[in-house]
Amino acid sequence: MKKFNIAKSRRLRGTPYSSRIEHQGVTSYTIYNHMLLPASFGSLEDSYHHLKEHVQIWDVAAERQVEISGRDSSKLVQLMTCRDLTKSKIGRCYYCPIIDDNGCMINDPVILKLKDDKWWISIADSDVILFAKGLAIGKKLDVNITEPDVNIIAVQGPKSFDLMGKIFGIKIKDMKFFGFDYFNFGGDDHLIARSGWSKQGGYEIYVNHKKSGLELYDKLFDEGKEFNVKPGCPNLIERIESGLLSYGNDMDNNDNPYECGLDKYVNIDSNVEFLGKDKLIQSSKNGIQKKLMGVQIDIKNISVTESLNLFDNNNKVIGELRSAVFSPHFNKVIGIAMLFKANWEISTKFKINIDGKSVNGTVCDLPFI
Amino acid sequence: MKKFNIAKSRRLRGTPYSSRIEHQGVTSYTIYNHMLLPASFGSLEDSYHHLKEHVQIWDVAAERQVEISGRDSSKLVQLMTCRDLTKSKIGRCYYCPIIDDNGCMINDPVILKLKDDKWWISIADSDVILFAKGLAIGKKLDVNITEPDVNIIAVQGPKSFDLMGKIFGIKIKDMKFFGFDYFNFGGDDHLIARSGWSKQGGYEIYVNHKKSGLELYDKLFDEGKEFNVKPGCPNLIERIESGLLSYGNDMDNNDNPYECGLDKYVNIDSNVEFLGKDKLIQSSKNGIQKKLMGVQIDIKNISVTESLNLFDNNNKVIGELRSAVFSPHFNKVIGIAMLFKANWEISTKFKINIDGKSVNGTVCDLPFI
Fold first, then answer.
1. Are the beta carbons of B22 and A2 separated by less than 8 Å?
2. Is the ipTM of this complex over 0.90?
3. What are B148-201's pLDDT values in tens digits?
4. Is residue A1 part of a domain?
5. Where are the alpha helices (DSSP H) in chain B?
6. Residue A132 and residue B134: Cβ atoms within 8 Å?
7. Which of A135, A293, B57, B238 is the most buried (most CB within 10 A)?
8. Are residues B79 and B51 in the same domain?
9. Which residue of B has its CA nearest to A101?
10. Which residues span the domain enclosing B268?
């Protein structure tokens, strides 16, 4: 696999923590919401083991917030997602597919209810703000839509609870999963949620001030020494093993939420109005023809940079691989694939062409672990 | 300047030509519309000189098309731009600021009128398709909005005319700037426009079929030997010298088109309805308080990865640098900066902090050449 430099510019802007992570040894970047998102600090595998045992500090400022406030804010937020938010509570996070009028995925953010008339949509990689603005203008909704200057630091891993308790007090250890509250640091109140893009536990700190944010970034490393803290980032191995989906990788605007296995977030039986509801009712009635599943492949190394077809014994395409990585746990490559209906049975065998060589694979359930 | 790898994935997908350009020596990528866009083939300066003398083939598939068709397509397209398109003609390209309801920039595409009810918006780096979808849904417009599988190859440089004439016939050399027509290659009709993101002349081939596109890519190199053809990409030196603006670098959603010097594309006196018209009328009446201008800086090297403040002699901020590069022509750094009103006079002096050192600069007009 050839390596290529990233050409930096203001258009792919850095974060308040970029100078820190570049000093700490970030080795590769991806781009996410027009910003730099670290993708590795040396070996992915070393980071994976460390994340599962200790605690990591992640610069995930690229997880931008679309802030929607005003009289019609709840109406607009509900319009964009097929998850029924009528019973949503202030101080809670909600994983929500964002859907267009075709019932297809536009994003899969976590939505935070800050007030009855103020929401943050904490987005994956697409310009949800433009969709929200277009809808609000077209429907003449009384809302204010902005991207606040909020730059998230994630604290992830089993020792994150002790580290965060040490800095913010014991109360933060009692916070429930997907709950959030406000905590003071450096004279500023920051929203902290019990959340994060790993299954190893932890928090996301929605830092709303650059100066106190940098102080907090440094404090986390100072206080974290006893917990073997390291800089990190969303880890491809851990997130695939855990079955955490990535918008743009595993799913895109050609897929509906049922096809992505997000059935429990599709509330077609509720009374709420949302985009694409008729299409999703139809899809539910007719049944889907493809869905995301796990696959295991009998090789030790892979780099997926585009969809790769999966073939049956008759060389018929049965689906496509969208993300994959070598898993130390399974000692083979595991991945997330979109599979056509005839091939959903667990243990279905397939062939895939990797670097000019045909290799064997097997269909399995998600998540892997 | 430290260098970092780009972490490739399906989310930052390659183009039909990626395998070719990686074989041909691309050295860095940027990300543009969720795709890989080559940013250099070795030395920027060598490519700059070559582009100005010979002909280059560019993989600019990342310039995506938002296709808007249907009964209300003209209405929707006009709604999104402050340029009056009522007299637009089929077979012509139009540079158009895309504007939100605040009168601020969302993108600055070239819009192609394919039919009376079919348009391509050839976008810079933001998800215009989501804005268009939101507006269409909200206003219940009768339109179909898609991203067609079109992957542009640009042929740029003074010898592009001879090369394209050799392949497509003499007729293509008579095409006027920003005109387009259809030409057959490999059994497929491809739209070819006299356009491109350099001021060295050339064409953009809107390739609509992968197989014939790859054949054409190779053909351009075969036939181009006598013209000293090379692979290339939008060149930072050439585009800044030519004053070609880059959305996300030089301007963003905090700027209106007057502030970006795009006055001639703002038709507030026309009868057409477009978003933000009231805000732009107000801005025109009140006058703007900042605008994009050129700057020259007395150093030989720079890498702009974020806005950099410009200071007067009293250490007061007078504007910010947004893009810059060393220019062989001027033998110093030149750049594009947003300057506050008190400092618009040509030859205004300023200071800027580069890598911890204060250096001198001068305000000038755009374009540089």
1. yes
2. yes
3. 999 999 999 999 999 999 999 999 999 999 999 999 998 999 999 999 999 999
4. no
5. 18-23, 44-53, 73-80, 128-138, 160-168, 210-224, 236-241, 277-286
6. yes
7. B57
8. no
9. B137
10. 67-134+256-286
